[in-house]
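Collaborator request, handled under Task 6.
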Amino acid sequence: MVIIGLCGGSGAGKTAASAAMASLGAAVINTDEVYHKITFPGSPCVRDIADAMGESVVNEDGSLNRAALAALVFSDEEARARLNSVAHRHIRGETEALLERYRNEGYPAAVVDAPLLFESGFDKMCDVTICVVAKKDIRIKRIIERDGITEAQAMARIEAQYDDDELRRLCDYTIENDGTPEELITATKEIYSEILEKRQR
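Structure tokens returned to the collaborator:
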């Protein structure tokens, strides 16, 4: 089974690219969804986050107080690094378990969809990496339409992430998503097929 790391900034089109690969038979692991799944009330991940960040980030019922946590790490680099260290360790463990399961189930490929693919070190578990990039004005429009936020908020989200040139440099493949959804799907499927063909040689 080939493990494909997929990354891209907000509004670039990563979700559509992972769906295109899933339609060709790949298993998809979305690390944001993994994080939500493992932060149930009283979970080992939530307990470790509380130990690292303080009890104020946990509600009385043992659930994660996401608003308090976000406020804590928003403008504090050191706090964000501490949270990421704990969260990434737990996400990695769950992701590795899922990869093992998909390998046993006979999937030809698994896509690890991770916004922080390189920052988290998850790229090291992948055989090949793909980034989805798009022009900033297009991404801003997509984010505003999708999330109902202001242009300034969309811009702040983009500015907080790796810049596209850096992603192009780090990744094995780049999907330029400035066109139509159909063009994105076609480009993604071509790259996916090429990766599998190379794997089978």
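The cover message to the collaborator said: "The chain has nine helices and five strands. The first strand starts at residue 2 and ends at 7. Please let us know whether this matches your experimental observations."
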